[in-house]
From TrEMBL:
It comes from the Bacteria. This is Long-chain fatty acid transport protein. Its main location: membrane. It comes from Chryseobacterium taihuense. The lineage of its organism: Bacteria, Pseudomonadati, Bacteroidota, Flavobacteriia, Flavobacteriales. It is found in: Cell outer membrane.
Length: 412
């Protein structure tokens, strides 16, 4: 029994990378229009599709922005009627990008984003404390890129992705009356992206893009036990004098396919739509290799393998923009985002819901400068939690909202 509980506690801490959710907050202007992608007005298009850089109307474009993301999860045990609410700090995703045309048909650029991550905090004594008490998950994407304009109406672009990741996770180990912390701030991985951007008519933009999965490799993560009988536990699990063991794992982040379109109904009014397909199904299992701790489930007792049972998911987006004047723009949008797992595979560390989101915002232009503000309100659908593998049952609900401020500069 002790072996099973310890395995669950350690595994949960690392699953955040594999089971973490995609954060759709890489452009303030885009968020206001349901986070649609076929907008080549400035360098913010670089993350969504590097090919779009060729259609930016200026030779040099620079953008930067940030968001506040607030969410609350409520879990209720339907047998005891005990209800638990998270006390999550405000999440702060950020982004920045630059695009430059050294010659007429060639554009180069760089994008920095935080496309995966979460921060969640439950009460220390809640019923799922052996799964999670507190989690901080961060990822950083660094993407140099290039775009070639193949014709007046067509461009191709590609990017290289270097990713850095961090996880810091606390949970209880009740059989030893203590806690375990899972920590790794040196995980890294590589990937790529490419896309085509079309403008067959001045009124129509079409974006087709692919972003590869990124295998985040944790080569020297640390599991630290803090328990009253420290020496006993150290000997039982093969920990060092500080109550620590190391682990290695390959932790994949999701791939994404996107098709987007923007149509100018009138010179002042445009409509945008996107379809995203996320390849979550590759998370069929996760393997962790500990240096000494015999908590595995394979022939080698230090190797722990857990089934994931994730499935591919889709997102549908629709947004619009109206130019009130040459300086002021109004934006609205809505989208539906599918959860990548069923009720039977719900995990409280990275809770996910089928979610409807409404968005809106304003844009202001003053010559080369632009200022954008946006907000979003999420309406996650409640879930009947039935995870028999974790012995976790009940009902989960959530609420969330986002706001953002973005700046842009199209120099010349």
């Amino acid at each position: 029994m002790k072996k099973i509980l310890i395995s669950t506690a350690l595994l949960a801490g690392v699953l955040s990378y594999a089971g973490g959710f995609r954060v759709s907050l890489q452009g303030v202007k885009q968020l206001a229009m349901a986070h649609t992608s076929a907008h080549a007005e400035d360098a913010s298009v670089a993350f969504f599709n590097p090919a779009g850089m060729s259609f930016i109307p200026s030779k040099l474009s620079i953008v930067a922005g940030g968001f506040g993301a607030s969410n609350k999860i409520t879990f209720q045990n339907l047998n005891t009627l005990t209800s638990t609410e998270t006390d999550n700090p405000l999440g702060t995703p950020i982004y920045a990008a630059i695009a430059y045309k050294p010659i007429k048909n060639l554009s180069v650029g760089f994008s920095f984003t935080t496309p995966f991550g979460s921060t969640i905090q439950y009460p220390n004594d809640w019923e799922g404390k052996e799964l999670v008490q507190k989690l901080e998950l961060k990822s950083f994407y660094f993407q140099p890129m290039v775009s070639v304009k193949m014709a007046d109406w067509l461009s191709f672009g590609a990017s290289y992705i270097y990713a850095k990741g961090k996880v810091d996770w606390d949970k209880a180990v009740t059989q030893f009356s203590g806690t375990v912390n899972i920590n790794d701030d040196e995980a890294s991985g590589h990937g790529y992206g490419f896309g085509f951007y079309f403008r067959p008519d001045p009124k129509l933009d079409v974006s087709i893009a692919y972003r590869s999965p990124v295998d985040m490799k944790a080569k020297n993560g640390t599991a630290t036990f803090r328990v009253p009988a420290q020496n006993t536990v150290n000997g039982l699990l093969g920990l060092n004098a500080a109550g620590q063991d190391s682990f290695t794992a390959t932790l994949p982040l999701v791939e994404e396919y996107t098709i987007g379109m923007t149509y100018k109904v009138t010179p002042k009014w445009l409509i945008s739509a996107d379809f995203n397909y996320h390849g979550w199904q590759r998370y069929s299992k996760l393997t962790l290799d500990f240096a000494n701790a015999p908590i595995g489930n394979q022939a080698d007792p230090t190797i722990l393998v857990s089934p994931k049972n994730f499935r591919n998911a889709k997102t549908f987006r629709l947004g619009t923009q109206y130019a009130f004047t040459n300086m002021i723009y109004g934006r609205l949008g809505a989208y539906y985002d599918e959860s990548p797992y069923s009720d039977e595979n719900f995990i409280p560390e990275t809770p996910s819901f089928n979610t409807y989101v409404v968005t809106g915002g304003l844009g202001f232009k003053l010559k080369q400068f632009g200022v954008d503000v946006a907000g979003g309100y999420a309406m996650p659908q409640s879930r009947d939690v039935k995870n028999s593998n974790l012995g976790f049952y009940g009902q989960a609900k959530a609420q969330a909202f986002y706001f953002g401020l973005g700046l842009s500069y199209n120099a010349f």
